[in-house]
Amino acid sequence: MTRRVLSSALVPAAVDRVWELVAAPEGIGRWAGGSLLSAEPEGPAAAGQRLHLLTSAFGLLLPVTIEVREADATRCRLRLVVDLPFGVAGDETIELADAGGGRTLVRLGSDLHFPPGWRGRAVLVLLARRWRRGPAASLRRLRRAAEAGR
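^ that's the sequence the OP posted. Answer follows.
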């Protein structure tokens, strides 16, 4: 069972600045809503890199693993495959475009794959608010991080 969520936002910072936040492992932790534990290998996002984070839900600290599938600084495009708690997997694409006036249009597409059967339906119902609002919340955190760095 798959659900798609698309979100976009105008971020009041230049594309280069937003790309730094999106492509740096520490930045990913900040805007994705987790605490970065490690990046293998260290350094800016690159295909094959694995990020290990902790996030919280229902009062629990839960592990999240992110694999960078694509990091194209020229096209300002990042593709991540995310292993989330409760058997949920995400395939996320972040694209940046210059919106003029020192602003950046950020598009975030997220395909969430839930486990099959009753377990997937239960997780879908329990996490409905989170998966619907998650990308928009990530973009709000990215916007705040960009504003703080001006």
